[in-house]
Amino acid sequence: MTDIILLDGGMGQELVHRAGDRPTPLWSTQVMIDHPGLVAQVHADYRAAGATVHTTNTYAVLRDRLEGTGMEDHFANLQKAALDEAQGMGVLAGSIGPLRASYRPDLMPAHEEAVAIYTEVANMLAPHVDILICETVASVAHARAILEATVATGKPVWLALTVDENDGTKLRSGEPVADVFAVAGDASAILANCSSPEAISTTMGILATSGKPFGGYANGFTKISEGFLGDKPTVDALTARKDLGPEEYAGFVMGWIDQGATIVGGCCEVGPAHIAKLAEKIKAAGHQITTP
Known about the structure:
Blueprint: E1 3-6, H1 12-19, H2 28-34, H3 38-49, E2 53-55, H4 63-66, H5 75-86, E3 91-96, H6 111-125, E4 131-137, H7 140-151, E5 157-161, E6 163-164, E7 167-171, E8 189-193, H8 197-207, E9 214-218, H9 246-258, E10 263-266, H10 272-284, E11 288-290
Parallel strand pairs: 1-10, 1-11, 2-3, 3-4, 4-5, 5-8, 8-9, 9-10
Antiparallel strand pairs: 6-7
């Protein structure tokens, strides 16, 4: 029997689906503005599904994401709103997403600038969460900067890497996944996220050699389209897979657990039904779902 930490699933896509509004570049942040309380409902549904760690809706609440949206002055209020909606859920993981854009390691700012930006965010989140989770980390430089900022808070830090859809041995930057280990000594766990489950299945074998707790949470997109890699993209540039229902997704994740993963969940397009099925499968396999 293995102790398994069960993360929640995707927040942004779940919000967009439930709100029914046309997606904007502010994505999950816009939904939080227009539909107060909806984030809390999603958190509650993941908790009911069996998740033991709840990720705050702060992935895209970054100053650079707010530029040009008319919301530049609402950064602190949006951080607080996301934290307020997660209160009472149990173990909270404060999410910090990539600067400027997801999947674009070429847009990563210079190291000192990135550390300064991440430090402000980490210091806002740390007093209110149990873990800081650095999500969709696409390069070694990204990992180095965000770890320098987050580890300084004294909170446990989980580093979640996004990998090449066609080669799970590589980050989206093209660098080998294993190259991150040289800068990740202070991370409490290393994960793979927001990539196809097929790619992450390959990544698991590499993370198993890190000497740290590891795991993964995949997305359910067909691929990251060129349209999503442009300036201020919206999620309507992405297409959900039709072959990744709860049963199919749980099959991938149980394979990761067989490889030694102990922290698992879901990312974009993986919802409460997927997490409920995964909880069922984990227990049926004789494992125990626990908290960090």
